[in-house]
Amino acid sequence: MKLNELRDIDGASKPRKRVGRGIGSGTGKTGGRGVKGQKSRSGVAIKGFEGGQMPIYRRLPKRGFTNIFAKKFNVVSVGRLQAAIDAKKLDAKKTIDVAALIAAGVVRREKDGVRVLSDGELKAKVTLEVAGASKSAIEKIEKAGGSIKLLAPVKEAAE
């Protein structure tokens, strides 16, 4: 097989339908759009229109909201920390904080902090300084002989 011999399997692609090229072609005159009416014209989009019936987006109730005060945390699993330590990207003897995780490539950017979750196993004794952690993650870290310091969220002073 040579590069100049590469081609699609027969029937893999159909030729483009050339619409509006004379009545004899079968798709001439109205071009497959039917006769007259709004939908035969160009620039028409009737999204959500159900023929006069109350559309589904109006039949269903509005629900929920977006919490503008919600914190966006980087999620790091205990197993991911162990993998980074095994790959010599993180030093288990030093304190592991957001800056160390970014430098190691575990976390891409600093959001509202790092939250540690308990997926995976931890063998190394580590000291962590993070914004949050699950109860089971704290148990795993302390079971491995490490410690974790949860950083208190900064509260803005009331004026």
What topology emerges from the helices and strands here?
Elements: H1 56-59, E1 74-77, H2 78-86, E2 95-96, H3 98-104, E3 114-117, E4 127-130, E5 132-133, H4 135-143, E6 147-150
Parallel strand pairs: 1-3, 2-4, 3-5, 4-6
Question: How does this model look, in words?
Answer:
This protein is an alpha/beta fold and 159 residues long. The chain has a domain at 74-150: Ribosomal Protein L15, Chain: K, domain 2. The protein contains four helices and six strands, in the order H-E-H-E-H-E-E-E-H-E. It has helices at residues 56-59, 78-86, 98-104, 135-143; strands at 74-77, 95-96, 114-117, 127-130, 132-133, 147-150. A three-stranded parallel β-sheet has the order 1-3-5. The radius of gyration is 30 Å and the shape is elongated.
* Cα-based radius of gyration, to the nearest Å: 30 Å
- How many angstroms does the end-to-end distance come to? 76 Å
Query: In percent, how helical is the residue content?
Result: 10-25%
Q: Which fold does the CATH topology of the domain at 74-150 refer to?
A: Ribosomal Protein L15, Chain: K, domain 2
Output the structural class. Answer: alpha/beta
Order of helices and strands: HEHEHEEEHE
Tertiary shape: elongated
- Mean pLDDT equals 91
